[in-house]
Amino acid sequence: MLLGMRDDEETGRITLAQVAERAGVSISTVSKVLNGRQDVAAPTRMKVEHLLEAYAYRRTTRSAGEAPLIEIVFHELESIWAMELIRGVENIAKVHDAGVVLTESGTRHAPGPDWTEAMLQRRPLGVILVLSTLPDEVKQQLRARSIPFVIVDPAGDPDPDVPSVGSANWNGGLAATRHLIESGHQRIGIVTGPEDMLCSLARLDGFRSAMSMGGLEVDPELVMFGDFHVEGGYERAAEMLALPQRPTAIFAGSDLQALGVLEAARVQGLRVPHDLSVVGYDDVSIARWASPALTTVHQPLRQMAEEATQMLMRLRAQEPVATRLELATSMVVRNSTAPPPPV
Predict the structure, then answer these.
(1) What residue numbers bound the domain in which 111 lies?
(2) Using CA atoms, how far apart are residues 180 and 189, in angstroms rounded to an integer?
(3) Is 339 inside any structural domain?
(4) Cα 258 to Cα 282: distance, rounded to the nearest angstrom
(5) Pairing state between β 330-332 and 324-327
(6) Same domain for 179 and 287?
(7) Alpha-carbon gap, residue 149 to 234, rounded angstroms
(8) In CATH, what number is assigned to the domain containing residue 94?
(9) 341 in any annotated domain
């Protein structure tokens, strides 16, 4: 049974009965809206949600035996990259005696339409989204039920009212390319991520800036968009290495893509780093065990997830938080880079 709050001088909070009265509906209808049921007409649901948000209604009682949960939403769960984020969320969830539920839904830009109803029925403490943003309607539904949400490593540029945690992608792209230039490379290729992701474009902009500051031309044939996966890195690198003037170094926009670059070099009989230098991005655990060990840009994925979860809990406690937090990246130099071969 759903319990409301007393609206008296002591609490100053609104009850479900008062929400129902002001919306002109029954208490059971308000209960259905709170629990994400779809058998409520859209105009009625919106009216109730507006009232819940306006009066900052907070459900303070959970059902007996119901475990507090933090939900983390990915558009795909295949990558080792995702595991680092999951570990970060779990680290903070344990401190708050909360469990973690994983959901795969939608695209990298937004969750699927069926996710909202299921999530509202789960009633998590809060939601971590590894996506770009949320539709306005979903944001309103979450806020009306006092379910905080934070986006981590956003694929796009989140709305100003959406808290998010990311990393310094432009600086990472700049540092990776500078490392190659300082090693003596001039013909440098890049396989960044998808063209519709802000982090991909930021890393590419960092690459272009480093090339410009180094007085080097950017060959359009050596700029390619990938998919952050091994296969995409392999395919794009195979195209580059088949050019009449192949690059002497490739900056891959993720460690997984860098593994694909290493394989493309092996297939074409090139030795890394003697014939081709390779730099990755992320510094996931497998990077140090690649052959050769991968030079990469360390993106603090676990810390990003920890900060996002801490931000989530502060929001739940109605404490002020920064809308945007950006963590630093850093170079990790291993054995996959060296000066270019002599001409």
Answers:
(1) 69-167+302-327
(2) 11
(3) no
(4) 10
(5) unpaired
(6) yes
(7) 36
(8) 3.40.50.2300
(9) no
